[in-house]
Amino acid sequence: MATNGSAPAAQAGAKPVQISEVRQSASRENRTAAHSHIKGLGLRSDGFADANAQGFIGQTAAREACGLVVDLIKAKKMAGKAVLLAGGPGTGKTALALAISQELGTKVPFCAMTGSEVYSAEVKKTEALMENFRRAIGLRVQEKKEVYEGEVAELTPEEAENPLGSYGRTISHLLITLRSSRGTKKLRLDPSIYEAIQKERVRIGDVVYIEANTGAVKRVGRSDAFSTEFDLEAEEYVPVPKGDVHKKKDIVQDVTLHDLDVANARPQGGQDVVSMMGQLMKPRKTEITEKLRGEINKVVNKYIDQGVAELVPGVLFIDEVHMLDIECFTYLNRALESSISPIVVLASNRGLTTIRGTTSPLAPQDPGLVSAHGIPPDLLPRLLIIPTHPYTAPEIRTIIQTRSKLEFAAPTAPQLTEESGASAASKALAVRSSLSPEALEELTVQGVNVSLRYALQLLAPSGILARARGSENGVISGNDVQEAVALFWDAGRSSAQLKEREGEFIS
Ligand SMILES: Nc1ncnc2c1ncn2[C@@H]1O[C@H](COP(=O)(O)OP(=O)(O)OP(=O)(O)O)[C@@H](O)[C@H]1O
Ligand SMILES: [Mg+2]
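A: This is the predicted complex of the input protein with magnesium ion.
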């Protein structure tokens, strides 16, 4: 439902700001793979955390603190504030941030980035930060629009003699009959709408809606009733609209400020979703300038004052925040003070460390500015710090168990069945795996002695080893885990070996 001229500012005669619905890019969602067992913070209605709920095990204090943050965000009391998740590697900081995003639901924008993402040869560091800031600020535009909606049953342009003489005939108006589930309506439309209809390539059997105020025509798709005639893959079939043809329709659009920036930086092309998506593929021609952002902010503020739009401050999550440098931190400080700022959630696994960008190659001995978590001392006091703690052995055991259920639940290769004549090896892959008590114990030992992450990474190879030796039902034994441990080094063993066999490697 893209609407250009329908934006309230256009009606008010102000500089039009195009509002288009843009789907979130899918690439950012892929990040959840390592955390797909996490379904939320696992809090009870009174806000306390269960020891094991929604895939989250232990770390109760941090989960409860995150629950409070979610409540504050929902009550819109957190804008411009920042939270830091601080704890050692593998203590669930990233998992907590993703659980926050799940608790907030899809209506609140959540933008995840990693500190190192700001370093690009093409875009300025602060520009990359600003872009993500604006991805995390949503705008809900609500409008009641008078529309005519239905399946096109008749489409006749009426011609008339050209009053100016010999130039043949012109279209004087357009007759269109729209059918909805409640009835039909015949409309006599202005010739300018005929052009719009031609542009959208509307023909009989399409479902369209026409905005009464602006005359904007939008083709919704092909009516279901016509679905049998050709089976064109590109065609989207939609049901005949319910209710009357002429009605008031509540149109709510959720956009982020970044969507508005992009739509307005590229004035060329159509404003509907398809052409917007097409433009995403093309190289960026028009830069989003500070001036453009200022203009958009002005219009957005006006919408908010008029009550047409509502600001939805979302969450900007910056993982590995110690990767940002001093310039970015200064910028972050300033951005947090802006009147439209999202909630910023930071995560760092560093202790006292040098802030990036404070050392100089001219003074290699100088350690630079050392600060907690690699965050400058002027930003630190503004943060609410949520600590995460290392897990106990029973917690590690339960996390491994939860994760193994997810990893081994579906056959690795569901399409390979006996009937398809698959080879023995690939058939083996199609068998489910499970952990024997000894294997679980062995993995827990690795989790305690080495790290939780290492233990989790051993799961998949142990499963394959169990299946390869023909274990019944793919049950993983303690030996399979030990074999995987022998095959794959952990970080500690790797560095110990490197020291021992220094001569073999280039250094
Ligand atoms: N309390 C928990 N319950 C269930 N799974 C967890 C829990 N904590 C961590 N995990 C899982 O353990 C793995 C490591 O956790 P995560 O990536 O969140 O650590 P991190 O604190 O972000 O570490 P790093 O500092 O290295 O980025 C992930 O797969 C995560 O889903
Ligand atoms: Mg992490």
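The mean pLDDT is 79. The radius of gyration is 29 Å.
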